[in-house]
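The methods section describes the discrete structure representation at length, but only in general terms. What matters is that the chain and its backbone geometry are given together, residue for residue. Nothing conveys this as quickly as seeing an actual entry. For illustration, here is how one protein appears when written out as sequence plus structure tokens:
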Amino acid sequence: MADEVGNKQIILKHYVKGFPKEDDLALQNSVIKLKLPPDSSDSVLVKNLYLSCDPYMRNRMQDSQGGYASSFTLGSPIVGYGVSKVVDSSHPNYKKDDLVWGITGWEEYSLITAPNSLFKIQDTDVPLSYYTGLLGMAGMTAYAGFFEVCSPKKGETVFISAASGAVGQLVGQFAKLTGCYVVGSAGSNDKVDLLKNKFGFDDAFNYKEERDLNVALKRYFPEGIDIYFENVGGKMLDAVLLNMRVHGRIGVCGMISQYNLEKPEPVYNLTSLIGKQLRMQGFLVGNYYHLYPKFFDLVLPHIKEGKITYVEDIAEGLESAPGALIGLFSGRNIGKQLVAVSHE
């Protein structure tokens, strides 16, 4: 008999409408064998070290029909990106003690039967937690959205909403490395200070203190915006449309202000797309993972040279995971929100 161990798990109790609450999620106990069955093939058993809290997970908490991400299965562990250590493997690409990042369960141990969603971690000279964000999905999202979708040029003006989050902080730094003028918005003065003093943005503002977002954007971009990296939607998008320059580009990464509304806010200024000949494009990071080696080779030297920095907000223990995830939607976190399940 293979050794069995306890396996704490975070499950979704019911599908959610409106703003999610911590008690929509529950901690349950199960057991798992630390050895794969003899007849298993191409499977990987992992111990989860870090779990990534990401806004797109809100869409999976509802009973969605035809969305880009399927709903979580009620009563089963929710899933998301994480960093894990291989315990046992029947897949030729993975062996015991390998470190990986990719899709895993929100639990202490996960059996992954489709390991094509995993990336092997080769470089451990940086914190392993970085593979939940800077060197993981968030980093790839920033890279693909900014360079592949927005096609930046030196000297252009760039605006980023939710700029202190996991993706926004990187887009701003990529833009500065490209030679752009960069302004970000965030929801607190502490986050604004972070953007200007930690991440090197040219300027930033607290959108909660602005009575008129259109006026605010004209103040920071008197000649208009070439690139808008969209993370929030709603009133911010409406104001940005009025302030885009001709042939501007809008990369739509997310719209977190709309995820918990049963009736999304209207956007009134879409006619700006016509007269200003704008390109507004949504994208999914999964379509760009073939570029991961190129992204990694670009970013890793910048990290080691101190040219790219990153801020993480780490919640300790699986028990803290529901609060960490739900806190995303009230802006509780500063920087990349993740959960440390084990420091092994």
User: Anything to note?
Assistant: The mean pLDDT is 92. The chain is about 25% helix and 30% strand. The first strand starts at residue 4 and ends at 12.
